[in-house]
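So, who can interpret the following?
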Amino acid sequence: MCGIVGYVGEKNATPVLINALKKLEYRGYDSAGIAVLGDEDIIVKKAKGAIKYLVEKITGEIVKDSKNLSKEETEKAEAEYAAQIERTENFVKGNIGIGHTRWATHGEPSDLNAHPHTNVSGTIAVVHNGIIENYAKIKSWLQSQGVVFRSQTDTEVVAHLINYYYEQKKDIFFAVQQALKKLEGSYALGVLCRDFPDRIVAARKDCPLIVGVGKGENFIASDVPAILEYTREVHYLEQKEIAVLYADHVDLYNDEGERIIREPSHVDWDLSAAKKDGYAHFMLKEIHEQPKALTDTLRPRLVFEENRPSDIRFEEFDFDESWKNAGRIVITACGTASYAGMVARYAFEKFARIPVVVDAASEFRYRNPILKQDDIFIVISQSGETADTLEALRIAKRCGAKVIAITNTVGSSVSREADKVIYTWAGPEIAVASTKAYTTQLMCLYLLAIKMGEVRGTIEKQEYLTLLQQLEEIPQKAEKIIQELPVVQKFASEQFNKEKIFYIGRLFDSASSMECALKLKEVSYMHSEAFSAGELKHGPIALVDKNTLVVALATEPALYEKIASNILEVKARGASTMVITQDGKGAFKNCADTIIQIPECGGDLESIVSVIPAQLFAYYCAVQKGLNPDMPRNLAKSVTVE
């Protein structure tokens, strides 16, 4: 839930650490800090709040707020901020350091609870992502040894525990190795020691950590965007591996201290994908990137004959007899990814005529699940590091199920542990609230469902070819929706002060409405709920009044009349209404206050794009309220702890 970075090389470490932390701020923004080894001592600087407050504390200069500025003013403010970051090199002259941006779990956000944490003498500094589950027991024991704690965090025990073992042999690698054996829970660690000024020791268990391999410099980071401007060669640390980074090389070890020889992986991501490129926020940029992301995810999986799509082919695996003879699909995920799974349930049942169960991974992992050998188990995770989803995957494998992972992150834990992996080629998604990750997940799931229908003989050949053609047209239809954003922006300016927002729909739209409601509550803090339109009279309508907005998703032509009736019911009770629909014949012109018309996609494919107006609505409501949609309070991009 936090972001950690580390640098060792020839450059001044401070600007490198701050720049890398800025790329990871989506992982945590309660506080931030760095520790840099100077000529003699480790110098620590920490600040509550966003990274700009750390920059202000280091430079003594106020960072200009770029909120609600024009594009030109925003670019100027960002250039000034970048110059201020470069001036942080005056903080301390040192070529090795570690940094951290925090999402609080143990201890309130404060300067004191911010990382890095040190031992009593300040000779060892630690940054940590994860949760040390037995920290209370270790803390009590350390206190009995005379250690005085200064923070409320679980992480501080790590610094003192490493120091305890360091005092035995004066060997930092030995000290870290021994301390790890005592820790229970999850961790990604970066450790700096004054007496070993040429190295950083790093380790991971159940939390992501990469090692960037440069020329005369090396890095650690929680995620790839942090180091893209410095190197594209990375090691994805495996479970319980330890890395020791020097300026000129990196040594990898297993938890027993045995050397590991492994070539780094190359990252192909475009560096510009991790920058705003003139957009006010990453969320808006990533909404606009959806047509390209959908194209990148779709096109490599379509086979063409005479310039027309003729088949679906996944390079990752073949559709063997297990797909034809499968008895059931089980999908598990968390948050936005789980709502993609709920839409996929309708797709698999329609196209492949196979029963589907969708489960929240946070619930699945604590059940005693009933899985069969002919089940196909699908896990979905943008980061590939979601703790609950990972544990659900492991349970499914122990039960003998075939596990397919859908993720956006090459080399992630989910991608390595699943039997097969399907990548959504969405590129880096920096905003906390998922947009392009969700729609590309849906694209992969629709491809699977339609291909499975073809394999099982539940889709006729001509219908199959028609669906492929319709899929190919989805990205351009997404582009057309995004071009209509002024309509959504105007509606948001009129509705952002509503007290209650209900999203309703039927069938596919009922599932899509859940993601629409989640987007709004995530970034605008407006109370929003989603439920099947047919359930309106079974309780929720009691809440409808003049302070209510009801947004109906209506992409099922056979149910237009019923949705129109639902809209009239809420309007009669004073609610404002908006409809997102592909209808062009006026089915809702006499009942909805605002109609957002999306292109007709055919074959129940509208769910891939019907969420886009809701994403834009959520974004503009947040902006209207003066909020930062990229970093909603209390949330982090990747939930790597329970």
The longest strand covers residues 31-37. The first helix runs from residue 13 to 23.
